[in-house]
Amino acid sequence: MLFGAHVSAAGGISKAIDRIEAIGGNAVQVFTQSPRMWKSTQHTPEELERFRSRRREARVRHVTCHALYLVNLASRDAEIRSKSFEALRATMEVARGIDADAVVFHVGSHLGYGFDEAVKVVAPPLRELLGLTTDGLWLCLENAAGAGGTIGRSVAELAALCDALDGHARLGICLDSCHWWASGVDVSDAEALDQALEDLDSRLGLERLRVLHVNDAKTPLGSNRDRHDVVPRGLLGNGLATFLGHPAFRDLPALLETWPEDGLSSADIDLLRRLHRRGRRRKRG
Ligand SMILES: [Zn+2]
Ligand SMILES: [Zn+2]
User: Fold this and answer.
1) Which residue intervals of 59-153 are DSSP H helices?
2) pTM to 2 decimal places
3) What is the CATH number of domain 2-284?
4) Distance from the CA of 173 to the center of ligand 2, in angstroms?
């Protein structure tokens, strides 16, 4: 397993590598532009080159680009849909420029008009975006907590999307521990997790799993509410060891997205590593 976190790209995207190196991570997630604005950021070729060379020096083995939060490919509003598509395309382009391994994004929400209809709306733009993937760069759907018609709230929904895209070879999945818990999967329970992953394997294939977001949860199991907490202060707590120690996740990057008030430090990455070890032992025992 690789360990890392989402870090700021302020001052130039290559600074993300400096930041993850400083806290001892070997995997990193960044925004390629401000996540709350449509306007894309222009990165200079020098900056992209610095990212790639710093990554080699720092031995960072996984890079994920997280798309902006405004994306909603299922919106009824054509302008929002086209802005969403353009933003994702820009993210894919930067991701290619920095040799990222994955672009992770939230498909969006149908806000009530229904999942089956939404699949028809989002499939064509997703197909186009998948055309921008490469052997090294996957496009990954993130599982949703399930609030307000969010798409991807269950393995069944993720699988339906995948089927609508003819099971594209570089369509990946990013699993967020907090979202899975909120959508009703007790990721801190070994049996429940086994079962959920068996389901995922049979419907999607474990090889589609590319990225893990490791967040604790402030809201209860099945609440469908997405409120991250700092690991391990939330309702999942040390139960996240079970999640992190699962053999299906062995080769994946585990990325923190929520951190203490005083900022992320090497202690947070060390904690991830410890929870992972504890989970591995529990599994064997
Ligand atoms: Zn996440
Ligand atoms: Zn979330």
Assistant:
1) 78-97, 115-130
2) 0.97
3) 3.20.20.150
4) 15
